[in-house]
Specification:
Structural class: alpha+beta
Distance between the termini: 53 Å
Number of strands: 11
Shape: elongated
CATH superfamily of the largest domain: Umud Fragment, subunit A
Largest sheet: 9 strands, mixed
Strand content: 25-35%
Number of domains: 2
Helix content: 10-25%
Radius of gyration: 22 Å
CATH class of the largest domain: Mainly Beta
Strand order of the largest sheet: 4-3-5-6-11-7-8-9-10
Number of helices: 5
Length: about 220
């Protein structure tokens, strides 16, 4: 036997990884979701339970009538497998994401959105990272302010202006931006804050994934 609450927990874990990540997606505190599950869903209908059911896109036809919900699953619906992620053309240092005009949206897998609920897309322009990020692709950026994974691709602002993506190494007193390109004319640049006049590097976020437009071609 599996209760409705146990089935919903199962679906949340399999589709979103955890209640915490699911709560970020639907904009409801995790404590409220836990409370609803502990209180019981079967005999309760509230705005919260409706939102949980709607986001999970539950296929009620698979639920048995004897209160055993082991067969309960999600509807197979393409729209529920993708999330329309905001796409920004450019980002300047110090400007809150919510204050930046969204250029467009682009669908990314719901699994990626669940994993990185605050992430956004940046369009890659140029060949300086073409070994890992082809020109014209859209990089998914998970916001952060520090370099946690040294040498990984990050979106950064140089002296407050538009974002650029490079492999970033944190130095004792600065940063090293390293291209990853088939073109050897792109060279690493060191920003040493011990040198007067060095431009300031602001970390925007780590690149965690990328996708290409539907009309993209080699």
């Amino acid at each position: 036997m599996e209760t409705l609450e146990e089935a919903v927990r199962r679906l949340i874990k399999s589709s979103y990884g955890s209640v915490s990540k699911f709560s970020d997606v639907i904009g409801i505190p995790a404590t409220s979701i836990y409370s609803a599950l502990d209180r019981g869903l079967a005999n309760t209908r509230t705005e919260l339970t409706d939102k949980i059911y709607r986001e999970l896109n539950i296929d009620w036809e698979t639920a048995r009538l004897d209160d055993d919900f082991r067969e309960l699953k999600l509807k197979s619906q393409t729209a529920n497998q993708f999330f329309d992620c905001p796409l920004y053309g450019s980002i300047a240092a110090g400007t809150p994401i919510e204050m930046i005009e969204i250029e467009d949206t682009f669908p990314i897998p719901s699994e990626m959105h669940a994993r990185y609920p605050k992430a956004f897309l940046l369009r890659i322009k140029g060949e300086s990272m073409n070994r890992v990020l082809p020109n014209g692709c859209m990089a998914l950026v998970d916001p952060c302010e520090t370099i946690e994974y040294d040498g990984e691709p990050y979106a950064v602002c140089v002296n407050g202006y538009d974002a650029t993506v490079k492999r970033v190494r944190a130095l004792a007193n600065g940063f090293k931006l390293v291209p990853d390109s088939t073109d050897p004319t792109y060279k690493p640049v060191v920003y040493d804050y011990g040198v007067e006049g060095t431009e300031v590097i602001t970390v925007i976020g780590r690149v965690v994934w990328y996708c290409v437009p539907f009309d993209w071609s080699f």
